[in-house]
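Hi F.,

I've been meaning to write this up properly since the lab meeting, where we talked about keeping a consistent format for the predictions we share between groups. The idea is simple: the sequence comes first, exactly as it goes in, then the structure tokens exactly as they come out, then a line or two of notes. No screenshots and no reformatting. I'm using this chain as the first example so we have something concrete to point to.
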Amino acid sequence: MATPIPRRQFTVEEYYRMAETGILAPDERVELLEGEIIPLAPIGPRHALCVNKLAKYVIKSLDDSIFVNVLNPVRVSNMGAPQPDVSLHWEADYSTRLRSNTDTLLAIEVSDTTLDRDRTIKQKTYANAKVPEFWIVNLPEDVIEVYRTPAGDEYQTVQIVAHKESLSPLLLPNVVLSADKILV
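Output, unedited:
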């Protein structure tokens, strides 16, 4: 019987110290998920277009009380700082701290090659952090998966939104977004 190899998990503080000291290169595309440093997948043209269109559309749809975070980390725990493609946060002074799970309204991952990771590890990470809502813009299936009501390490409700339908962030019910303007 094979003995499992122990794995060293890192805290958010250790992760950022590695970046400060040069252990992680400044241009290295990684994120911290559940204590593990995970490489980010390369961003292809369709993914990039979708993130840009999504960010532009969401920003135009919101007022100044909401901060739109694009491709930047969100500290969700002592062991996690994922980098969602787009996330919405209550407006605050983020000059001295990362956005966190307590001020996150919605995390959105645009997914093409990372669909399995987003449905498992990312969904679990955001649910554990009690992020109220998580969306996967599922490019292969051309739908938006909406996860709501975190309980433990999963969301209790899942809704699939297709073209010609609309959706609203749970905590921003007056903001109505068209799936057609998000899916590319």
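Notes:
Residues 34 and 116 are 16 Å apart (CA to CA).
The two ends are 48 Å apart (CA to CA).

If this format works for you, I'll send the rest the same way.

G.
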